[in-house]
């Protein structure tokens, strides 16, 4: 037998260490499971809200509302900061990120530059980018 392990206190220490490792592993797994369920719930809620966008006829207003829906979903998932800061924290495909970033630029023009005119085609492009992003998170 190993002379270091003869002492009862050493066995006790190893047992405590093993128990702590098991507890830590269980806590990590529970946290990951909770985060995954939170994401699913947030995306599901956002998808329900998304259906209401069809009732909005103004293309600019649709874009503002779509961004707001995604922003609320990200808040529910625990992301904080401006929408742009949240986007930068999320790992997405480069093309997807660029499409959403471009959509956000148009959204900001609508929100901050009165009189910005948005065509239905532009709105559809932006809404498509936002929707793809929503499904990717």
Number of helices: 5
Spans where pLDDT lies below 50 across 5 or more residues: none
User: Mean pLDDT, as a whole number?
Assistant: 85
Q: How many domains make up the coordinates?
A: 1
Q: What is the number of strand segments?
A: 0
Task: Choose one word for the global shape.
Answer: elongated
First-residue to last-residue Cα separation: 53 Å
Secondary-structure class: mainly alpha
Helix content: over 70%
Rg, nearest Å: 24 Å
Q: How would you characterize the largest beta sheet?
A: none
- Helix/strand order, N-terminal first: HHHHH
Strand content: under 5%
Write a concise synopsis of the structure shown:
With 137 residues, the chain is mainly α.
Overview of the structural elements:
This protein has 137 residues and is mainly α. It has one domain. 76% of the residues lie in helices and 0% in strands. It contains 5 helices and no strands. Helix 2 crosses helix 4 and helix 4 crosses helix 5. The longest helix is centred in the first third of the chain and has 43 residues. The radius of gyration is 24 Å and the shape is elongated. 15% of the residues are buried. The mean pLDDT is 85.
